[in-house]
Design a protein that fits this description.
This protein is α+β, with helices and mostly antiparallel strands. The chain contains 3 helices and 20 strands. It folds into 3 domains: 100 residues, Immunoglobulins (Immunoglobulin-like), CATH 2.60.40; 99 residues, Immunoglobulins (Immunoglobulin-like, Sandwich); 46 residues, no CATH class. The strands form 4 sheets. Strands 2, 4, 5, 6, 8, 9 and 10 form a 7-stranded mixed β-sheet that branches. The radius of gyration is 39 Å and the shape is elongated.
Length: 291
């Protein structure tokens, strides 16, 4: 009776929590959106929450000033945000790819939603286009093999490609920063030990950083992909077991007897013909020598 009562209580509590759950969906900025300093954008969302909210931009996990002193009505579903002119360039950055918006309850101070990350470019940042085709996010590469890094861009001139494992440089400069951006590809050999050199068989936090070789500008950081240690793709050959020598001899004698037995009908082993007797003796002697 106590067990059934406890189960009923858990069901009631679960239903109560489900009834209290609220809905919140971010529409813009979406993940990967690119915004620019000094421009105005409409933040948009959907929710069943009511009351006022605070919206606070976050750069790399660090909070900035709250928008409009927390006087933004949640039910409006939108708010026009003018990105400050020095929003990221004030930190000496040309772009930031880890910007997010946090929504906070002004009464309790509780953060109840954090948007997906998006990008903000500085107002002086040249609007170059760059898209990495391979490695794509989640790709699995293997040590000891060659892969073609591929991208699309309108950039010109030499670039550097730096391989990172867990944020640490593993292959600092491929081709010493002489890769032409307009080539759109680069043959990359993943040397054995790329991840196994750290004592691990796999790393899921490998990235490629792209830098302008002329001014040192870091203009692109890839999404994480995986690299696994070298696998043994050459299995050991199947062991060939030879039968003992005596079995070979018996098998050979049996085969010889099978081949010669029809001739014994016409040329018997122990007949009166001395020539045939010498021939059979010679065959038997040869067999004995091979043994």
């Amino acid at each position: 009776m106590v067990k059934s009562g406890g189960r009923a209580l858990r069901i009631i509590l679960l239903c109560s929590m489900m009834l209290q759950a609220h809905y919140f969906r971010m529409i813009f900025p979406y993940h990967g959106a690119v915004l620019k300093e000094g421009q105005s954008y409409t933040i948009r969302w959907q929710t069943d929450l009511r009351g006022m909210t605070c919206i606070r931009p976050v750069i790399g996990g660090h909070q900035t000033a709250t928008l409009d002193d927390c006087h933004i009505p949640l039910q409006s579903g939108r708010w026009v945000w003018k990105v400050p002119p020095k929003f990221i360039s004030g930190f000496g950055l040309n772009r930031a790819d880890d910007v997010a918006l946090e929504f906070e309850n002004p009464q309790s101070g509780e953060d109840y939603y954090s948007s997906p990350t998006f990008t903000v470019r500085s107002s002086t940042h040249p609007s170059h286009y760059f898209r990495l085709l391979f490695p794509y996010p989640g790709a699995v590469l293997e040590e000891g093999r060659s892969y073609r890094i591929r991208w699309i861009t309108d950039r010109k001139g030499p670039i550097c490609i730096i391989a990172l494992v867990g944020g640490h440089e593993r292959e600092p400069n491929m081709q010493e920063c002489r890769i032409p951006a307009e080539s759109g590809s680069y043959e990359w050999y993943l040397f054995p030990g790329f991840v196994s050199g750290f004592g691990v068989k796999r790393s899921d936090d490998v990235r490629l950083a792209f830098t302008d070789a002329r001014n040192g500008e870091d203009f692109y950081l890839s999404k994480p992909f995986s690299v696994v240690a070298v696998k043994d793709h050459h299995p050991k050959p199947y062991p060939i077991r030879f039968p003992p020598q005596e079995r070979l001899i018996k098998s050979r004698d049996k085969e010889a007897h099978r081949l010669l037995s029809p001739w014994e009908r016409f040329w018997p082993r122990h007949g009166n013909d001395p020539v045939l007797n010498d021939l059979w003796r010679l065959i038997d002697d040869l067999g004995a020598r091979e043994r």
